[in-house]
Fold Metal-dependent hydrolase.
Amino acid sequence: MTAVHANRSTPETDPGEVELHARNVEFDLSGTPLHWIPDAPVSSNMITVLNLLLPEGERWFVETFNEALPMIKDDKLATAMRGFVGQEAMHAEVHDKAVENWLSRHGVDATGYLEQMEWIFRKVLGPREGQTPEQDLKHLIERLWLIAAIEHYTALLGDFALNCTWTENGADKNMADMFVWHGAEEVEHRAVAHDAAAYFGDTPIRRGRAMALAMPFLAILLVRGFRFINSQDPLYDDMSVPAKYTKYVKDYFVESRRGLFPKIGGLVWATATYFKPGFHPNDIGDTAQAVAYLASSPGARRAG
């Protein structure tokens, strides 16, 4: 994987609006170690949690957008939403394969966590039965705003992946490529969920309510997934609980300073930008940088 740090756009390279589309990709994780970033078990395992968390979430995105699409009369927005749906469906498929063909080979049985994600996204956050049409529309709009709030974080994480130091620190090229490819597409389509929700009305109350749920919701699921993977990671087998948590905290600070993992304080601070007057998701990341990576991604080129 080549470095992409230099691909920030200039007036000469800015691609302007891009048409969103799903890309066929293929990532060979047959030789990828569990700790795919050398000497960084905390960052490796925490980022690996995304393989468990994302598939059901992304399928929920797809189903919610497909529910909303017949109501969208703006052709440009509808086209972007269809491109978003295609990309998210591919993300879910890729991360499912990573769990089946990679995590299981390292002895991590993800069944319990995956069943929890299925229950949350299909039962708790899915459509509700027995409601009036007005109640159905209200619930749909609430789900769209929740997706927009979640996509605020996926855009931030996508921008991080495009500019992190995984490659410089010897990360497994195929796993790094998979996450940077995904991150680049998150940057590429970062405005779609917000624009889809705003189509039905943008108010501070709707934004605030969605973000108040999204931030703790994602934090809890990520921490739960991290503990789930670590419970099956041989590195921690002989450690006491205090020793484990001491190592987690120490490693987090060391690894985040090395640019291997996002700084939590930065993510929390970035939450506030969602409420700035005039904020739009296009303020996050760089389309030219994302498109440049997507054109050069080994996984995309291999499948193409």
Summary: Residues 12 and 288 are 10 Å apart (CA to CA).
